[in-house]
Write a structure and sequence with these properties.
The complex is a heterodimer of chains A (351) and B (305). Chain A is mainly alpha-helical. Chain A has 15 helices and no strands. The chains are: A mainly alpha (351), B alpha/beta (305).
Chain lengths: 351, 305
Amino acid sequence: MLALGSTLLTEQKQRKMAIPCLFLACVFMFFIALSKGGVNLSLSEIVAIINQLETDSFKNAIIWQIRLPRIVLAMVVGAGLAACGCAMQAIFRNPLADPGLIGVSSGAALGAVTTIVLGSSLFANFSSTLGVYAVPVGAFIGCISVCVFIYRLSAHSGQFTIISLLLAGIAVNAIVGSLIGGLTLISNEQQLRDLTFWSMGSLAGNHFAMMLPSLCIIVLSVVLLLRLAKPLNLYLLGEAQAKHLGINVTRLKKQVFICTALCTGAAVSITGIIGFVGFIAPHIVRLVLGPDHRYLMPASILGGALLLSFADLFARTVMLPAELPIGLITSAIGGPFFLIMLLKTYQQRSL
Amino acid sequence: MKPLFTYLITLTLLTFACSSNSAPFSAQKIVVSGGSITEIIYAFNEQHRIVGVDSTSVFPSAATKKPQIGYVRKISTEGILSLSPDLLLGEADTGPQKVVEQLKSTGINMTILTQEDNFLGIEAKIKHIARLLNVPKKGEQLANSLAIDRAALNTVLQQSTYKPRVLFILNVRSGQPIVAGANTSANELINAAGAINIAAEHIQNWKPLSTEAALALNPDAIITMGRHGDTPLESVSKLAHFKFSNAVKNKQVYSFDGSYLLGMGPRTPQAVVELASVLHPNAKLPATYKFRFAKTSQPNIELSE
């Protein structure tokens, strides 16, 4: 399955071309997203605003305080989720793996739901000091604690096996699910609606000061994951083979685990749960470029940025003046697109 | 266009003339988030000033034709800005908080009502909105008109010492009914209508009710949420929870429209009068009292099994 489509574009040249092409597409997408929205701005206006020439404070606010943070967040989160998905699929040697398996999403959800439901009573101090930061911080704490728990469970006496990771992840996910259910039951009407919307994901309402810690964590993790491309390639040969080739397999697995936990945790804590991007972006890229992580990883990162920023543009413009939850869009656009790609590849392979 | 313009000018002049202390600014392009606010502005006959509403603004039905900004707790920054409003008027639960903060930072003129949204506060809310819209007289008028409902409610309650034990069900479609416990608007209105919400002793907020607990509660009357033309007795009597309750036996099952009863808008006091009169069937309304809005509860006389 991982080798699917490896014969599609075998020439090295074409693979190398894909990355600059995707990068250009991202830049193009960035400016399109910057100009479209509830208030339409022309490209010349945007250039003027970015160069601080335009003095209209309303338009300035639109770009600097609303649109730019949102697009940057969409691209960085998309890139981060895709990188994590790509690394997870390699580590599990299974194309169905996604960061949710190691408890990131459910941990973040538990943290966020706890903050929303108990924030006004049990953790009143926590919520009042942090204000709007309370839910993201709660989500991040929840995510890291659950990941640490799963790590402790699976890193048993110096061993860190994939099967124990998977089993611990599934069990902990189930426990966390029931805890969230319990919190949902004791929530009031308003909290219930807040947590429902949180779990559908949204990129709205963030400013740079709020996003900065998350962005730093995501960028750092993405850079680290990029550097793991070569060892991941060797790891695909099998654990024993990779060991013989001089790879510290346990360390590699731990590195991927930690990067994924931090990166996805940072992303989910600020945006809520955005499904499918981490799963689908690496897949589509693998269908076109093949499984070599030296190309797959950077292309997935750019593809994830492109996919999420496109989904976000769609979400905030399609039913103006209202807005769709981003999580619905990523699945609704990504799913069918992925299916078409998959069917086409199978047809080509069978010829 | 022209009459509207002259109207606006006279309105501006009038506000200048009438109000010495309130600001001369009067918002002409208002985005509303919260159904009861929309309802109040329509009651003022100032609906031409609304340029966008949220999805809870369902009464009057004409309001649903206005541009939609989404659900009250999930409004979008750019969507609202695209309507270029000069006032965003929102109920206390307008959100998410992040978006509200962001809107503030763009310098948009916004008022989020913070006063407690309860049955007793409806008149204050009406007057507050009237002040914001610079139509204080209309506010006084509308608030005073609700005094009739309050008086009628008192008349009904004075005639009856009996307090029926009521259960309020949000949804009967699924197998497990969601009922109103303590700390809900429904609980407050049941108390206002001179009845006891039997779920309030055991339950906080809206919770699913177990079959056996429901059997033990044995309500005298059941109120459900529904639309005009619903037959609540039929659906409720099918549930094992309530099949053997006094409410079903005595056909004391009524459905009320949600925005009418729980909306905390200008129709809510009348809805409570209606609720009180169905819960105290022997009490008489004042002879002069008239229902000004469509009643929504359904008598269940024709149904017999």
